[in-house]
Design brief:
single chain; 244 residues; mainly alpha; 12 helices; 87% helix
């Protein structure tokens, strides 16, 4: 099972190398947003709020990487994508993908709202530096409790988004399908292949989250590689479902 997941990652890396500058240029948009967020929040003493934003990124990233699925189709057709293809990806975005993106955004807003409410219960929105957390045992205990609650809530929402979006977006792009057919396909694949898809969910979510949280510049490579790897997952699962 792990060998299959590793193969998906290798195929994602191969697709990334076909147009590395283009891939990193698109990812740089989200890197810039992340850098502004982390610098601003840490400077103002709200470092734990960045944890909320990093977790929330998992809810919207499936829709944000739609561009890479479009580029993957061009690459697999034997062509070389360029910057005009990124613009074309937005223009050709099916209605089903837009609705999925809207649902992801709503869940993201729910996550942000609930997480900030939990944060206010523990810390009352008073600026607190990382040094304060380490020096004060009470603050450290509160921070631990907050992170546990946030992780549980984030994990539930992220898995819902994963089941809905992991394969529905590339399916809608390739098949020009409606929302119901795309989401049904994604959920059906996850439910019929629970072990490997659960492993894939942990890998996608874990790599994305810890990259955003601890090694943000690596997002330039991690984001497109994982997107292309997920496109490989879609192709394999599509063939599996059609043959079954």
């Amino acid at each position: 099972m792990f060998s299959v997941v590793w193969e998906w990652l290798c195929r994602g890396w191969q697709d990334f190398r076909r147009a590395p500058v283009l891939n990193m240029a698109y990812a740089a948009v989200f890197l810039a947003i992340g850098l502004i967020a982390v610098l601003g929040l840490i400077t103002e003493g709200f470092s734990l709020v960045y944890f909320i934003l990093a977790g929330g990124f998992l809810l919207v990233v499936p829709s944000l990487v739609t561009v890479y699925y479009h580029l993957a189709g061009i690459i697999h057709a034997g062509q070389h994508p360029n910057f005009a293809d990124i613009k074309e990806a937005f223009h050709q975005c099916p209605a089903a993908v837009l609705v999925i993106g809207l649902v992801s955004l709503v869940l993201y807003l729910i996550w942000i709202t609930d997480a900030l409410i939990i944060y206010s219960v523990y810390f009352d929105f008073v600026p607190i530096s990382l040094a304060d957390f380490n020096a004060d045992p009470v603050l450290k205990a509160d921070a631990t409790a907050f992170l546990i609650f946030a992780c549980i809530l984030g994990a539930v929402l992220s898995f819902i988004i994963f089941c809905i979006t992991v394969l529905s977006i590339p399916f809608a792009l390739e098949k020009k399908s409606g929302l119901v057919d795309a989401v049904t396909f994604s959920v059906k694949v996850v439910s019929r292949n629970p072990r490997i898809m659960f492993m894939w969910a942990i890998l996608l979510g874990g790599l994305t989250f810890f990259t955003v949280l601890l090694a943000l510049p690596l997002l330039l490579v991690v984001l497109p590689v994982l997107a292309y790897a997920n496109y490989a997952t879609y192709n394999d699962m599509l063939r599996l479902m059609e043959s079954g």
